[in-house]
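ligand=zinc ion
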Amino acid sequence: MESCTWSVLQNQQHNYFFISNQGRINIEQKFYHEIFNSWSEVRAVSMHSEIDNIMGQILWNNRYLQIQKKTFHWEHWACKGIMMLQDIITENGTFMNESELRKLYNIRCSFLDVLQIRECIPKEWKDAIRSQRCRQKKFNFSNDVFICDKMYNIETFKTSIIYNYLIKQKYRTPTCITKWKEIYPGFNDASEDLWPNIFKLSFKITRETKLQSFQFKIIHRLITCQKKLHEMKIVDSDICLYCAEKDDLKHFFLYCNKSHSFWNSFFKWWNNLGDIVIAPDYATLAESILFGFQSEGEIFNVINYCILLAKYYIYCQKIHNNNKIDFYQYLAHLRCKLSIEENIMYSEYKWAL
Ligand SMILES: [Zn+2]
């Protein structure tokens, strides 16, 4: 810590200490108030914390330690070096009495002071200290911080730990995932990586923003099929414009008459290429068409790209071209896209030289 300009600030109004390299900070400023509040949130501890965490708790302005429902700060104790709970616990895990404190820290203190502090310590912490009986180690306040119930060394501590924690706090399962799980119950038993991989897939297989956001719309169920338009009260019926079925997202991409025959031609064409043969089981293929194949390997990136472009082709034909879905037109479109990608690659290669 000597080598860096960071220093420890104590905030009088809140229940924690704050680390800063700003020198003097005007704590009254709203900006710093917000920072302090977030810091306080991050440093929140559970009542059933590990003994290390409890021993490292700051005594002053700590939300968990209150006298008459108020946090407190005893300057004359703090300036003598009494900062954390461990500073008033003996080697045997008992609370120091007034004469021990007086002798060790040369402070003015009465029996009542000691009692007040002891009484305000949560019962769970007292039990943990008692059961531990002896202190494992002494923390160096300037180097150790407790964040989200874990101890970190401030010198090796990374901002990303707090960032990830705050993101995790705000995370809510997207409603689309719940809906897809209802439609495909098999997703309930899937691995934890499945959904992150589904969301990342389009970014892995194409650089085209239009296709990436199109796949995003599919996953979030934002495609304007008749059912969606009907829910939004834009059209009177949720029946498909091209057949008599209900036009939900699955029907729109997979089961509508022309879409269905398109996919038959698609997989026949793909299987003739001979790289990997896809079993023509339409029920299981449906998930792979909507979300892509979740297998690793270049060849799966290729088929996933072809599928994504095919879905986009179906979408455009249904919305703008009166359902004129023709597999050979799609193939020409694919060829054109691949030749553009090839040219971009060569021109980037030329510039790189
Ligand atoms: Zn239809």
